[in-house]
Amino acid sequence: MLLICYGLFCGGVENYMLPFNAFVLAVGIWAYWHVVRQHYGFMRLYQVKNGERAKTNARQDGWLMHLGLMLPFVVFVLRHPESRRAFGLPAQFPAGPSWEHYVFAAIVAVLAYLIVSFLVREAARVRRGEQLNVPKLLLFSAVLPLHMVVCFSQSVLSAPLITFSAFVTIYHDIQYHVLVYCHQQNRFRNNANAAEHGIAAVLSKNVFIFGAAAIAFGLLVRGFGCSIQVYDGPHQCFTPTLIGKVHLFGNVYSDTLLGAFFLGFPCHHYFVDQFIWKPSKDQRLQQDLKLQPATA
């Protein structure tokens, strides 16, 4: 994308950074969609592990998880000044009646319908004497209010757009680390061939080693990014350099190029994660997640 931007710059195009800005915007949307799909995956795991086999119920819960997280995101995008500018809209959300207000009202109505329908279905299960799926209910109780508060809050609009990812992914990050740790423990515990998996078995030996490795890697990446001025700047780095301020063309410096490089790591994660967590297609994964062989 930066090479295309450079070509546009050489051709005298005024808005030469549009391809790269669109790329960054697409990565941000993909990142949020990734979080939504991960929460849906956890919901399905809780359904299977607690005996919820009805496809109709799974489908309705799926609609609540997907729309309950995506629709508030649409509201956030329509209201935040930075995201509005990214989509070519005026930075300020209109005060009077506009199409944004109609979209806002429609989203609120759909969310209300989905939540009420969910509560009615769960109440019906109680009346029938069925056992409630407590882990699934706790997941919904944690995830949906978090995203709705963040996306509908007025105070979030004054925070930089990049902080949105921290608001809605910290919970997901912890959840995902726990899933990986439990998976690794189930695979390597009492496994005579665990050493064949190399460093994965060592890092998953216990929760302290696993947690220390995660924190150390985060500090390493953060420190490296900061030292080359991809992140906050030299005043917060141990070994600052000036590599981030090498002029490339137009208003583009080397920190933009390095930032694009760093975006490759989460993109790799988003892509790979679409394929590695498929219990219905991987019997070994079913065993490592302690799911029954017949699960989907």
- Written as H for each helix and E for each strand, in order along the chain, the element string is HHHHHHHHHEEHH
Poorly predicted regions are none
- Report on the biggest sheet: 2 strands, antiparallel
Relative strand content: under 5%
Share of helix, binned: 55-70%
**Secondary-structure content class:** mainly alpha
Radius of gyration: 23 Å
Global outline: flat
Strand count: 2
Strand line-up across the major sheet: 1-2
Distinct helical segment count = 11
End-to-end gap: 39 Å
Mean pLDDT: 85
Describe the secondary structure blueprint for this structure.
Layout: H1 2-10, H2 18-49, H3 55-79, H4 81-86, H5 99-127, H6 134-152, H7 163-188, H8 199-203, H9 207-227, E1 247-249, E2 252-253, H10 254-276, H11 283-288
TL;DR of this structure?
With 296 residues, the chain is mainly α. The protein has helices at 2-10, 18-49, 55-79, 81-86, 99-127, 134-152, 163-188, 199-203, 207-227, 254-276, 283-288, and strands at residues 247-249, 252-253. The chain is built from eleven helices and two strands, in the order αααααααααββαα.
